[in-house]
Amino acid sequence: MRMSEIQKTAVVTGAGSGIGRAVALALAGAGWRVTLAGRRAEALRETADLAGPGAPVAVLPTDVTVPEQVDALFTAVRERFGPLGLLFNNAGTGTPAVPVDQLPYDTWRSVVEVNLNGAFLCAQAAFRAMKNQHPRGGRIINNGSVSAHVPRPDSIAYTATKHAVTGLTKSLSLDGRPHRIACGQIDIGNAATDMTAPMRDGIKQADGTVRPEPVMDAADVARTVVHMASLPLEANVQFATVMATSMPYIGRG
């Protein structure tokens, strides 16, 4: 039995741009009631406008690193839409390429706050809601990265947190079993967003050279998330990697 209509309620964090925006729009187009969360209210409203008049979307500005704001987000979703079917745990940040010995600790800490602590807080709140609601259960999809498998040069903060997201996914998947909570992860490589714009001009490679890299349409990622979300809770895509076909990931560059 597929996800019932009463549970086609989703929260997308980092929904104001990039992958979050693409996924939110795709979910809304597939009939989900989508709450757009992120720090920038104006960007979230732009996403809502792109969904079109009458689209089942709500805007709730949220800083995912603040526990009280995360709790308020999921309380508001429950009160407005009822049982939660999906969290796309997407909010994340990176840093410019910085050699490890020159990375300021405050920069390290800010990446950990968003990419790991924020992901945990949102997953915890979603887990709590899904465990206690009726009907019980739901799905969490964490946005990892190909950096959850292999690093780029000078990316220690981003890479370390994305490896940690994989551990978060595995623990949630295991701990969610008794409660009909499925958790999977999508690892994305070179989707065309503002964050990846430098790749088209040239980005540092493992051998120290700078070369442009191919990118793919973020809509292709969004379709994958919609597929993962549409499965019955008895089935789960544990890990999916969606990447630009010719990017330097498989092989030796």
From TrEMBL:
Annotated Gene Ontology MF terms?
oxidoreductase activity
Source domain of life is: Bacteria
Which Pfam families does its entry note? adh_short
Q: Which InterPro entries match?
A: KR_dom, NAD(P)-bd_dom_sf, Sc_DH/Rdtase_CS, SDR_fam
Keywords assigned by UniProt, alphabetized? Oxidoreductase
Against CDD domains, the record matches this protein to: SDR_c
Keyword Oxidoreductase among record annotations = yes
Say if the entry is tagged with keyword Chaperone: no
Q: Where is the Ketoreductase domain?
A: 8-189
Q: What family is this protein classified in?
A: Belongs to the short-chain dehydrogenases/reductases (SDR) family.
Protein's UniProt name: Dehydrogenase
The organism encoding this protein is: Streptantibioticus cattleyicolor (strain ATCC 35852 / DSM 46488 / JCM 4925 / NBRC 14057 / NRRL 8057)
